[in-house]
Automatic annotation (TrEMBL):
Coiled coil: none annotated. Residues 7-71 form the HPr domain. InterPro entries: HPr-like, HPr-like_sf. SUPFAM superfamilies: HPr-like. Pfam families: PTS-HPr. This is HPr family phosphocarrier protein. Gene3D superfamilies: HPr-like. Transmembrane segments: none annotated. It comes from the Bacteria.
Amino acid sequence: MSGIGTTAIVEINQTANRYQSSIVIHADNKYIDVKSILGLTLTLIRDELYRLDVHGPDETEAREAMKVVFEKHGLAVRFEV
């Protein structure tokens, strides 16, 4: 499995940081704050389904933005309810 590029990691991180909501990625029994660029760097790989947990005052907008940026970089994502 190969890691994703720096551009994707930075764009995902910057997108998450535009929102007040908490955005946590669940991957490989890890729970990583998507606003942590180091956490993303160590977590994101291709060919995996990522689960995102989004809670906060702007969660609807944050979910949509995260879906768009993950799909843009070919990363499968689903959201926890």
